[in-house]
Amino acid sequence: MDVQETPTAGAWGEWNPTEDSARPLRGKHRVLKQRGGLARSSTVLGVGVIAAVGAGGIATAQDRPQVAISMPDLLGGGGGHSDSGGDTVRTAGAAATDSGTGTGTGVAGGAETAPTAQQGGDAGAALLNRILLQAESQQDSDHAQARADAERTAREAAAQEAKAQKEAADKEAETARAAAEQAAAAEKEAAEKAAAEQTATKAATGSGSGSQSAGGWSLPTSSYTLTSHYGVAGSMWSSGYHTGLDFAAPTGTPVKAVGSGKVISAGWSGAYGYRIVLKLDDGTEIWYCHLSSMSVTSGSVGAGETIGRVGATGNVTGAHLHLEVRKGGSTVDPLAWLGSKGLDV
């Protein structure tokens, strides 16, 4: 934009019309008019505004700190200071000086606008970087929070699973314990039942009654109860002690030969009541006393053969079989002797 040339101080002195300019028109009276007054006044006003704006710009530029601005040399190196890269470096102070020396309002405006745009761009970039950093920080925080929530959820799930497994294990252990107790109770019941059946069988037939051991031996009677053992001291026995083994049983219970032998004696024998003496093959004598009756009074018999019946004859207090075992004329413990033959009395 062209700037009108500012008149000098001398040009604005008092205007005096010349004789030619003040010459009256013929036939009429004319009022003289000053030429160019309004135009000159407009010029003065425009120049004043430009000067004020320029002065304000210069003052503003002078008040601001000088900032180095790199600008490309569009005019081929004209004006400004060129660095090693070939670009022209102009400062705000230089721009203000050029404006003050009349290089044109366009150049002054450019010098004034460039640092403002550069500073605005730097501020915008800094703000953008700060926003991006804040967003990244927030994203990292969100990720950390999500990771913490996932870990907490996993821990809670693991705790719940462990609790469920413990409860299941406890329940399984309780079930196993109940099953073991039930099995033990059933086993005990079965054992008791077997024992009861064995007792009933023993009561009916006698323990080992009628059966023979591997060597051919048999118990003397059945359905019995041992009452008096061998060697027990007492005044009721003439020798001062019990010389045999008593099998208490109901009257009429069968009495059997304990082994193969020969009946050598059968009849009444005082305190022994009715007695049968069986001599075995090895010479051992078996005495059956207090019999109610005698089935065999002589001859050979086999193990388990019935030879008489339980009774209460002689010196007794109740029905029972008094069994004596004599070897070489002396008595021995019948319980131990029967056990030596493999018989469970």
UniProtKB/TrEMBL annotation:
InterPro entries: Cell_wall_metabolism_enzyme, Dup_hybrid_motif, M23ase_b-sheet_dom. CDD domains: M23_peptidase. Residues 85-100, 110-120, 176-185, 196-217 have a biased composition (Low complexity). Residues 140-155, 163-175, 186-195 have a biased composition (Basic and acidic residues). Pfam families: Peptidase_M23. Residues 241-334 form the M23ase beta-sheet core domain. It comes from the Bacteria. Residues 1-26, 70-120, 137-217 are annotated as: Disordered. PANTHER family: MUREIN HYDROLASE ACTIVATOR ENVC (PTHR21666:SF270), PEPTIDASE-RELATED (PTHR21666). This is M23 family metallopeptidase. The lineage of its organism: Bacteria, Bacillati, Actinomycetota, Actinomycetes, Kitasatosporales.
